[in-house]
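pipeline: protein-struct stage 2 | run 1193 | WSCD1 protein
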Amino acid sequence: MAKAFFRLQKFLRRTQFLLFFLTAAYLMAGSLLLLQRTRLVIQQGSRGTSASQALDGMAGAGIVDPRTLQNPHPGPRLLVGMDAMQEPALDQWHSPRWLVSRNSELRQLRRRWFHRFISDQEPMQTGGFRAMKHTGEHKGTYMGCFSDDSRERTLKGAVFYDLRKMTVSHCQEACAERAYTYAGLAFGAECYCGNKLPATASRPEECNSECKGQKGSVCGGVNRLSVYRVQEPWAGARQRRNVIYRGCFRAPENLTDTFPASLIQPNLTVEMCSEFCSKKEFPLAVIRGRECYCGYPTGGFSLHDSADGALCHALHNASSTTEGKYCLVYQTPVQDTRCTDRKFLTTKSKVFVALSSFPGAGNTWARHLIEHATGYYTGSYYFDGALYNKGFKGEKDHWRSRRTICVKTHESGKTEIEMFDSAILLIRNPYKSLMAEFNRKYAGHLGYATDRNWKSKEWPDFVNSYASWWASHVLDWLKYGKRLLVVHYEDLKQSLIPKLKEMVEFLNLTVTEDRLLCVENNRDGNFKRSGAKQKDFEPFTQEMKDLINRYILTVDEALRGRNFTGLPREYVPR
């Protein structure tokens, strides 16, 4: 008996030692693997792995949404999760060819963010503050390091973000184009413009953030601004600054009460008045005879009711009975800053609101309007680095954090829709939406696809797949949405303030009229397409039109069936 017990005790000791050894070996192997992977990520970041290379590798692993890789054959329900659900009859014409796992996509977005984070931080770890300098290829004068108070910011005339390629020269050029005297950089990626130096100077070593796009150069620090005086452009360049004629308007009864700054100058010109108002940091230059006034659009001077231009030209006629009643209004290069301050919600939102649309329906533009009207960031179901670099800081915030006023999504399907408590459903003419999304796929948010793209076989395949997605997206939100506000892109564009006010009220917020007028004054933001626009041609064949028109009629009928306003008459087939 004692012998058997001894054998059992010996076996247990050996087993305990074996388990301990296996556990230690497992932990060591895991640690080595983690170190190896971290080293690989840092090496990739230091080599500047491009987004396209990263995406190619992800595609090989089978975890990337093929739409991101510009798959010419996307299905109409590309972003739907793995839940199977009964589709409307129209989906039977073009059923999805594959579905994408949302969990895989979210995991990949986190990986992409981590790679970029490592890439951004590595130069700072190796370079250090001593390697950075204030002098470089830029031509401005370095004024010093200053404190930056976000609540009482001195350089607030214009704000730009570029979290990948910000340089001192880029910031100076952007401020110079808008007639500002000083350019300030903070956090290595943020650019601020203004005509007054900040009041509080800081120690030089406190500006220690390296510019994201220029190794060895200083771009401010945490709540610190590296301030430069921009080089004064030559006279010809000043004349070419973006001064926009807004029209002829009836002058307010008391101009000095309406406008904070004024100038009386014999032989007054548009350039002289615009330059004066730009230096005063006002977005409007108002001319009445030899009088120049500077200010903002207000309730008493909203710029909504323009007059006949001949009435303003009659001001130069001394015998005219209209003298003094009308004025010329110009938009200066200066940005209206009354609505540019934005922040995250201080407490988590109790209502989870979606800003839902089909791709190409103006979601980014609507986010720009909502953020500037409410003063709060919008979130996104996805991560778009290009939008984050343009100032949409909610892009990097987790979409379910509830720290944003609403969340962008192109998703449809029962599960994806029922996650939200309410939604603003943005609908746009499918012809325009399809063209806008095709432009985005081949030229980014602000570019245009080439003639070669339009004439390729990808365009017909794109229309066949995406047209049904446009319809099914609306139908799903009408079917599963809990509380909806339907906004038509065309109505928002035509009647911006009334529609935007309706959207803000849906979000349970109130805003001042001056803030809404500021948004209207900055309505385009940085999201208007530039470059060579497509020539006048008809990209849609008759077969495509017949297909799209059937979807339009189906969606129009569904909207009216839910007691919503039908689609705008301008594009509903008759």
